[in-house]
Amino acid sequence: MTDQLKNTLIGLFVAFAILIAVSIVMFLDPNVGDGKQVLKVRFTNVAGLAAGTRVTFAGKPVGEVASITEVPNARALPTDERGKVFLYELTLKVDSSVKFYTTDEIAIRTTGLMGEKSIAILPNASKTETLVNGEIIFANSIDPLENTFAQVSKAASNLQSATVHLDQWFVKNEQNLASSIQGVDQTLQSLHAVLATIQDQNLISSLQESSKRLSENLGLIQDSLNDGLLYKASHLIENLDQTVNYLNTDGLQMVRTLNQIGQDIANGSGTLGRFVNSEDFYLRLSSILGKTETLMNDINHYGILFQYDKSWQRSRTKRANQLKALETPGEFRLYFEGEVDTIQTALGRLSELLDRAGTVESREKIFQSED
Fold it and tell me: Which of 129, 198, 203, 330 is positioned for an S-S bond with 101, CB 3.0–4.6 A?
């Protein structure tokens, strides 16, 4: 077999493999059900959702979003528990073999490292389950992770505002506080003198007798209290106890949630933890910062609409044509040496400028020079 025939067979094999790969990517349709069952679901927020968004039932893909329409006169219709208006109605096409009940919960979930949105149907058990038969379903439009971060951000903002107000109050009343502290100091000194006088006059026995009589009088007052006052005091204590129990349950639950989020980030588990602790996070961040720096340089030299500037367009076109024209190692070497020469020339100009700026006479002229 000659070399030409070998090369021909290899080329045909590679072309056939590429054709198969392209066919799989373009024509392979993921299986999410037959889509014969239609559900009407209303949401207060459809951020991240679009036609074709995946619909899952207990984590398994069973359909997708067919369309998103705006509900007419939505502000006049019932709202959710937070007062949010159900502005959008989504048409979901799901597999006909899956049974949906009115007690099932429909919510937005975030999946994957890139934060893709999906609609999750979570089955719930109830003694009064009835199948969904064409009626409109109202979904929970708030992602649990986003809701937790929103609550934490709101609490931090309130705490910061309270701290600022407290600091302003201390600054405003600094002199009054100093005067009050001095008054307390004088009062303590006077009290010390009074106690010394009491000790010198042997008034302890008289105070004991007065305390005994006071205790007897308090006992008489306690006996004379009516039942209504005692009942109110007992009811107030009971309400305070319920409040403390509520803080112990819900407050501890929120702290546990925040602690779990922190542990997930530290251990690299969960969406946010895997994203922060991934090995290529630093490389991606460096790439984004580099692109941002290039963008700011273009804006600084050519203005905010730099893409319409003729000079910028010519410069980019020239660089692109030069890069496309590189075909041999020699041409690449000439291009590389030209770029290095340009950098060395710029550094030489900067060095000369720094030397000139060292003298007092020409420093002001350099600062006033546009070049």
Answer: 129
Give the SS3 label for residue 267.
Answer: helix
Q: Which amino acid, one-letter code, is at 274?
A: R
Q: How far apart, in whole angstroms, are the C-alpha atoms of residue 330 and residue 336? A: 10
**What 3-state class would DSSP assign to 55?**
strand
Q: Which long-range contacts (CB under 8 A, 24 or more apart) does 118-127 make?
A: 118/53, 118/54, 118/55, 118/56, 119/41, 119/49, 119/53, 119/54, 119/55, 119/56, 119/65, 119/90, 119/92, 120/56, 120/59, 121/55, 121/56, 121/57, 121/58, 121/62, 122/58, 123/57, 123/58, 126/101
pLDDT digits (tens, 9 = 90+) for 318-357: 777 777 777 778 777 877 787 788 788 878 877 777 776 6
Of 94, 88, 34, 89, the closest CA to residue 64 belongs to 94
Residue 12 φ/ψ, nearest 5 degrees: -65, -40
* Domain limits, the chain: 37-142, 284-368
Instruction: Provide the 10 A C-beta neighbour count for residue 116.
Output: 12
Please spell the DSSP secondary structure of 20-53, one letter per residue: HHHHHHHH---------EEEEEEES--TT--TT-
Those residues whose C-beta lies under 8 Å from the C-beta of residue 31, and which sit 6 or more positions away, are: 61
| H or E, element range at 306 | none
pLDDT in tens, 56-87: 888 888 888 888 888 888 788 877 777 788 88
pTM for the full predicted model: 0.34
What percent of the residues of the chain are helix, what percent strand, and what percent coil, each to the nearest 5? Answer: 65, 15, 25
Q: Which of 143, 53, 145, 133 is nearest to 90 (CA)?
A: 53
Alpha helices in 173-280 (DSSP H): 174-201, 204-224, 227-246, 252-267, 270-277
Q: What burial class does residue 337 get, using C-beta atoms within 10 Å of its C-beta: 0-12 exposed, 13-18 middle, 19+ buried? A: exposed
The vertex-104 CA angle with 101 and 106, nearest 5°, equals 125
CA–CA distance, 8 with 29 (Å, rounded to integer): 33
Token reading at 54: 């995946």
- Cα(234)–Cα(244) distance, integer angstroms: 15
- Residue identified by tokens 């929103």 is 150
